[in-house]
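Good morning C.,

I know you're traveling, so I'll keep this short. The sequence:
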Amino acid sequence: MAVPEDASSYLQLISLAVHEFRTPASVVAGYLRMLQRVDQPLSERQRKMIEEAERSVERLSELVTELSEIQKLDAERIEPRPQPFDVFTLVADVASGVHEADDRGVHFEVRGQPDGAQMRGDQARMQRAFSAIFRAILREMPADTTVVADRRLETAGPTRAAVVVVATEPNVQSSYGAEPAPLDEMRGGLGLALPFARRVIERHGGRVWSPAGTGRPGAAIVSLPLPEQLG
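The tokens, ready to paste straight into the viewer:
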């Protein structure tokens, strides 16, 4: 399929940006490593400054890698890997490793149907997508809040879908029937994790959105189509 001219220009721009950012970041990282190996001992203050600079460069390199992956997804150069997995089991596995806002008493629970949502695709990237969504919501919650990832199967005619609602405990059920609104991907502190997550879900034929209306802060809904049978 031919890529529209404006889309082609966008993809070329992102590819160029990735290259231009990656080169100086690699140079700075190399010089910081050299500084840590000099014969003259570093003072505690100097050592901490170098370590902080090194962490910042590593974060910049991570952002460049995320930007490169987004460009490849938009250019359809990354195809979902044909690996079978259960969406609901994956959600529980990912949730068990997400501890965002634990220190503020924010509790994260997984409920609903435990399995039965078999699909085929890129399991590793889908794990990253759900992790980004979970982290984005949990970090916005006030202290002593319970957030739930609720799982259910939905059927519309011949189409089956695995649906996961992530919301505060009182708002889970009402989120299912709410009007869809775009997911806010511009949250600070998460890098490009949410734009990446949306693209991964869409490349698997799914959708991610927020339930519209007041009283549902930080909620998200993911719907992924399931095959009639998994051969």
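Safe travels,
E.
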